[in-house]
Amino acid sequence: METWEWIVVVAAIVAVLILAAALVRIRQRRSHLKERFGPEYQRAVADHGVGAAESRLTDIESERRDLSLRDLPPATRDRYLDEWRNAESRFVSDPRDATRAAERLVVRVLHERGYPEEDDDQRLVSLVSADHPDVADRYRHGQAMLESVDGAESTENLRKAMLDFRAVLEDVLQGTRTAA
C-alpha cells in the first residue's frame, strides 16, 4: 500500500473510534439523566424530543448544582406540618380554600429550602425533580386537579389534589436526596 492509502485507513479507524467514544458518552449521559430525573425524563422527551429534552435536563441539573439547598430544622418542619394539619382540617368546610392553602404551603417550603422564588412553576418543579424525581408529577397532578374543579366531581378533585400536595410536602420536608 502506498502512503496515502495508509493515511486514509488510519483516518477511517480514528473516525470510527471517535464515533464509538461519542456513542458511549451519549448512552452514559442518557442513562444518568434517566436515573436522576426519573419520570421527569420521560415527560421532557415526550414534550420536546430526545435531544432537546436531554439538553434541557442537563441545563436544569447544572442550575440545580448552583443552588444552595438547606434541610429545615426540626422545629421548622414541625411548624409546616402544623400548618398542613390546619389546612387539612379546613377541607370539610372550604375544600377549595384548603387546597389552595396546601399548594401555597408546599411552595413556601420549597422556597425556604432554597429553591428559587419565581413565577415559573414549571421551572421550579423541574429543579425539584433533580432531587425528588417523583415529586414533579405529583405536584403537577395536584395543580391539574385544583384547576379542573367544576361540577359534581369538584370535591373529589380537590381531595386528590390534597393527597398529591401532602405527598410532595412530606417528600420535600425529608431533606435533600440528590440522585447519583
Can you put this structure into words, describing what you see?
- By secondary structure, this protein is an all-alpha fold.
- The chain has two domains: 3-66; 74-173, Four Helix Bundle (Hemerythrin (Met), subunit A), CATH 1.20.120.
- The protein is built from eight helices and no strands.
- The mean pLDDT is 87.
Biggest β-sheet, characterized? none
Low-confidence sequence ranges: none
Overall tally of structural domains: 2
Shape: elongated
Main CATH class of the largest domain:
Mainly Alpha
Q: How much of the sequence is in beta strands? A: under 5%
- Name the average pLDDT: 87
Q: Percent range for helical residues?
A: over 70%
Distance between termini?
A: 50 Å
Run of helices and strands: HHHHHHHH
Produce a short descriptive summary.
With 180 residues, this protein is an all-alpha fold. The chain is 77% helix and 0% strand. The protein has helices spanning 3-37, 39-48, 50-66, 74-89, 95-113, 121-129, 135-147, 154-173.
Keywords summarizing the entry:
mainly alpha; Four Helix Bundle (Hemerythrin (Met), subunit A); 2 domains; 77% helix
Topology:
Blueprint: H1 3-37, H2 39-48, H3 50-66, H4 74-89, H5 95-113, H6 121-129, H7 135-147, H8 154-173
